[in-house]
Amino acid sequence: MACGTSTHCDGEDSDDPQGAPDCRRRWARRGTGDSLGPPPRTDLPPRMSTTLAPAHPLRHPLTGGLAWAGPDLTPDAGLLPIPAAAAGELEAIAALLADNPLPVPSLDARDFALDACRALMTEARRLLEDGPGFAIIDRLPVDRVGREVATALYWLLASLVARPVAQKWDGTMVYGVRDLGRPPGNGVRPDVTNAEQNFHVDNSYNICPPDVVGLLCLQTAREGGVSGLVSFAAAHNAMRARHPGLAPRLWRPFIFDRQREHAPGDVMTHRAPIFELRDGRMLGRISRFQIVNGHALAGEPLDAEGEAALEAFNAILEDPALRFDFHFQPGQIQLVNNRALGHKRTGFTDWPEPERRRHLVRLWLRDRGRPFYNG
Question: Is the pTM of this model over 0.70?
Fold first, then answer.
């Protein structure tokens, strides 16, 4: 069942035998007058079933193109230069849009000649799905075509990978990533601050997180802001090896702060495991920041096992032996498999001039469900 047609949380349709029963019951109560009676106890996460599929990641290490360690990747891993034919198509579209402006979300790739670009983005999608789980399109001529047209070209290219979807409850489709000068907290997303991030999944606290996260770099910071990626498959393998007693806790629910991105009066938290299986593939969702805030908002302290598992796993994600760091350049498009890799950036110091301040443009892509924020 697609996430857009289900009344349950993202974990219900997975192959994971545990699932997230608290989450399913909470969403099932919506619109039913709480006819199911009192909410279930949530102070003790339900134990994982002892019946695991033979190939379950808790039984065997994960392998394949998505299970990499950073030092094993070449410096140009995932890099896809825009070939001449695709650059010609983009130049023609840039000239057309300069004379015929449209709001970016109104643009449809089917209205333009994009055969070479489609081949480029088909290769990008292969990298996203089969490994290494990310692609860096190099690069759009931002200085020549301008930021608005570059954003439009980025939208068209990204839409050849998957459908853009809303990034906020109000329906925002194109999201500017800039430091707004406020500290991160409930209602203030870390991506609009200059604080260092933990490795995370975008929209980890939603029913249907995006499958792919896109970022277009328009301007870099004066100092810092280094991008980092880590393979969840490799990190899960390390968790099994280093903390076998804690690894199963990652497959049981945690409480995530929904960042006030919901209808007025709706529940402010979402319950989901960090790992689940769908169609035989392990999917991750993690944000230490949102988990800590979520348990505080719910008034339910994180259990000792959950706290130990979360701390151990976050330490693994930061292990230099696993992570892959790189510098994002103006005009480049970064596409990341949002459920197979964690991503982050370091803290940064910006330029004093407003026009030189760090500026990225983010898109969320997901073909499942509907384009609504909640899928």
Answer: yes
